[in-house]
Amino acid sequence: MASSKAHHATGWAAGCIAAAIVAHAGAGGPWHLGTLFALCMGVCGGTAPDWMEVAWWTRKKRLWIAHRSLTHWGLGWLAALYWSYHALGSNVYAVPAFGFACGGLMHLLADWPNPLGVPWIATRHSLNLWNSGRCDLIIVAGAWVAAFVIADHAWFDGVHTLYAINYVKSLPLHAWLMRAGLPVLS
Known about the structure:
GO terms for molecular function: hydrolase activity. With 186 residues, this protein is mostly helical. It has one domain. Helices cover 61% and strands 2% of the residues. β1 (118-119) and β2 form a beta hairpin.
């Protein structure tokens, strides 16, 4: 499990991704309120798999189901994302559902490297890269790079991504990696 701060940061990135896709699909509505709503719901969805496990209707606020069980089920979040994306522009609930599903899926991607893993289809699967709370910077940076690339593609036809790639190629480190025979951006 990534830390709470990492889930909040990746939730903001998921909200930006959802807003860019909603705007690109033309489902933002008047004054782009739908785009703003997708952003807000993406932020909420970024922490949703954890807070949906809490029994808010009781005084003790204990978990009503086991952690990383039903609320962390990847197939459910993917189905919500698929339905809401295809319903953008035709269903009033599609925009908030899309933002929420983007955030929830981002949460699962942040939890995946942990040894506990995430139940994507039937059983848990883990990338087994690091323990909880470690390497959060990698997860947050990856989420924001994805947000940058997707938003750039949606709003600017990817021109800034090409500039960024060309800039990295111009760095001396890039030339050194090529001489060393290591994989680099081409």
